[in-house]
């Protein structure tokens, strides 16, 4: 009874990031990739083709390679993505205080969205606000989180008010945190700045354009946000980049928005980061400062792909240095951004 009374009326805040394997061992990586890539919003082809592609080709061939990469970034704290997400949730709970019940979940693997929602239900929360930890909206990331939460909560006998943060690509505190992290590197001393976002198949971008004649059809369709492209992942990414660049007085000619981590042979959003590295090296650029503003915590894509892979690739092309700007992690300004979103 005491627990019942204590939890009554709390506002539930569910923070959700993408997820990571339970360990870097091949078996756990296989389970993670299988759950992740069988999501119909991630590999958005029919179930037969998705099953053949994911279970027959990608998971068996990719798991051993991805396991090696996870072993490179796994440290005594485990997966950086999970480690920092847990800290973010704990700090948000601390700042929101007793009137709130904060849970962290991962879209894939653990802690699961189901277990987090069950804890909230047991805690008798009076409402649930879901904050997918992806600054820019994509059907494959935020969309997938929102769909699963709706599916699960829709089965409850009592459905509390549920709300969702769809994206926060232009959040002032988030922009300031990225800019602040970059200042110590003195961006003006670099030859060029990259805003390297996680990639997305072009097909998925096109689905966001309900007019059918704007996205990827008009020149520079993503350069400015308007009513047609306001949910476009790429257009929101360009906006994030523009806002960070403005804070740091980086001129448009001195930065490039690009997309990394392509999977498969179909066209993904362009330009690809690897192509941009080649172009910049050919122009004689030596030192690059790289932001990764699709992520709010360090993860495989920042710690390995940018810091190791792109660094080595650029050096092999004649460049000298690729400097990653740290992710938001436990920065107090970003925690404040989350707290404000939770309260809004
Ligand atoms: C911005 C958020 C993300 C979007 C959008 C996204 C789309 C997307 N991803 C894949 C395939 C893979 N992504 C992988 C890792 C990974 N992806 C994100 C975020 C988004 N993905 C994060 C944060 C991470 C790292 C997780 C960590 O534990 O550190 C991987 C696994 C690694 C690998 O094998 O390369 C795959 C695979 C697709 C196909 C896709 C869009 C359709
Ligand atoms: Fe991904
Ligand atoms: Fe677009």
Structural notes for this entry:
Its main location: cytoplasm. Catalyzes the ferrous insertion into protoporphyrin IX. The protein contains twelve helices and eight strands. It has 344 residues and is an alpha/beta fold. It folds into two domains: 2-168 and 332-343, Rossmann fold (3-Layer(aba) Sandwich); 172-324, 3-Layer(aba) Sandwich (Rossmann fold). Strands 2-1-3-4 form a four-stranded parallel beta sheet, with helices on both faces. Helix 2 (26-37) crosses helix 3 (47-73) and helix 7 (172-183) runs antiparallel to helix 12. The chain is globular. One fe (ii) ion is lined by residues 198, 261.
Question: Which key terms come to mind for this protein?
Answer:
single chain; 344 residues; alpha/beta; Rossmann fold; 2 domains; 4-stranded parallel beta sheet; 8 strands; 46% helix; globular; disordered N terminus; binds the ligand C=CC1=C(C)c2cc3[nH]c(cc4nc(cc5[nH]c(cc1n2)c(C)c5CCC(=O)O)C(CCC(=O)O)=C4C)c(C)c3C=C; binds fe (ii) ion; iron; Ferrochelatase_N; ferrochelatase activity; EC 4.98.1.1; Ferrochelatase_C
Ordered list of secondary-structure elements with their pairings:
Elements: H1 2-7, E1 11-19, H2 26-37, H3 47-73, H4 80-96, E2 100-108, H5 113-122, E3 127-132, H6 139-153, E4 162-164, H7 172-183, E5 192-198, H8 202-207, H9 233-247, E6 255-260, H10 273-282, E7 287-291, H11 300-316, E8 321-324, H12 332-343
Parallel strand pairs: 1-2, 1-3, 3-4, 5-6, 5-7, 7-8
The protein binds ligand L6N33NVT and fe (ii) ion (FE2) (2 copies).
One fe (ii) ion (FE2) binds next to loops.
């Amino acid at each position: 009874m005491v627990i019942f009374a204590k939890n009554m009326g709390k506002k539930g805040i569910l923070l959700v990031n993408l997820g990571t394997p339970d360990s870097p061992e091949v078996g756990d990586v296989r389970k993670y990739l299988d759950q992740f890539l069988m999501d119909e919003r991630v590999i958005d082809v029919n179930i037969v083709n998705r099953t053949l592609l994911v279970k027959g080709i990608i998971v068996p061939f990719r798991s051993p390679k991805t396991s090696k990469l996870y072993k490179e970034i796994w440290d005594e704290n485990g997966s950086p993505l999970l480690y920092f997400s847990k800290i973010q949730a704990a700090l948000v709970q601390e700042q929101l205080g007793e009137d709130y019940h904060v849970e962290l979940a991962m879209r894939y693997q653990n802690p699961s969205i189901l277990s987090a929602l069950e804890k909230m239900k047991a805690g008798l929360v009076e409402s649930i606000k879901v904050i997918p930890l992806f600054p820019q909206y994509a059907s494959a990331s935020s969309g997938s989180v929102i769909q699963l939460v709706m599916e699960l909560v829709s089965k409850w006998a009592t459905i509390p008010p549920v709300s969702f943060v769809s994206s926060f690509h232009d959040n002032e505190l988030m922009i300031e945190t990225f800019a602040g992290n970059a200042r110590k590197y003195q961006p003006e001393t670099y030859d060029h700045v990259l805003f390297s976002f996680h990639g997305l198949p072009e097909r998925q971008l096109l689905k966001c354009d309900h007019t059918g004649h704007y996205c990827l059809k008009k020149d520079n369709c993503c350069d400015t946000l308007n009513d047609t492209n306001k949910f476009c992942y790429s257009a929101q990414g360009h906006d994030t980049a523009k806002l960070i660049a403005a804070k740091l007085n980086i001129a448009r000619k001195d930065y490039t928005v690009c997309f990394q981590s392509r999977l498969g042979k179909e066209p993904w959003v362009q330009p690809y980061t690897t192509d941009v590295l080649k172009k910049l090296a050919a122009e004689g650029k030596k030192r690059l400062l790289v932001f990764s503003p699709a992520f709010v915590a360090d993860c495989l894509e920042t710690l390995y792909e940018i810091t190791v892979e792109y660094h080595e690739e650029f050096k092999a092309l004649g460049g000298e240095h690729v400097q990653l700007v740290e992710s938001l992690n436990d920065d107090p300004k970003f925690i404040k951004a989350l707290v404000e979103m939770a309260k809004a």
